[in-house]
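Figure 2 data, in text form.
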Amino acid sequence: MSLRTKFNYMATGRPYNDADPRLGTLRDLATLKTNNINNENDHAKKEILIKELFGSTGEHPFVNPNFRCEFGQNIHVGDNFYANYDCTILDGAPVYIGNNVLFGPKVGLYTSNHLFDPAERKAGGCVAHSIGIGDNVWLGAGVSVTPDTIIGAGSVVVNDIPDNVIAAGNPCKVIRKITAADRTGFDPNSGQFL
């Protein structure tokens, strides 16, 4: 399966093998590219590097250090995108960001999530769901955007959380148990999924 086909498959929300070595190679490449972006102080040169990393951009994209992404090629931004310090975008599925969008420090967008069932999760099972942000949006400092989670992003865990549950909030509370209904049938060796 080609990498483009793999990315298209990942964007469907069906389970895939996150431990696939080809994905690891692409993550390593994105790390090298983000290191170059983070070390570049010339705004014009930085813009060129961002346009080479992202899937598509409008005019004047900008990211402060230490920007991190999983692949880069699944990130699509409009005109005048600005990400403040320590932004992280895990782009296992496409991320669409409109025009004139500002991110405060430590904003995170996370399309990918491990499977809920512990055995499937241990085998490398993940799912990814696209994230879209419209025009003229400002995400304040520390905002996390996720399509689904086990411990919800930004949760404040002040007590023990039992095994096999989904929990979130401030303070973090159990929402529900993880059940057999959460199993997807993921098997990294079957060829049924990536």
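Caption note: The CA atoms of residues 10 and 128 lie 6 Å apart.
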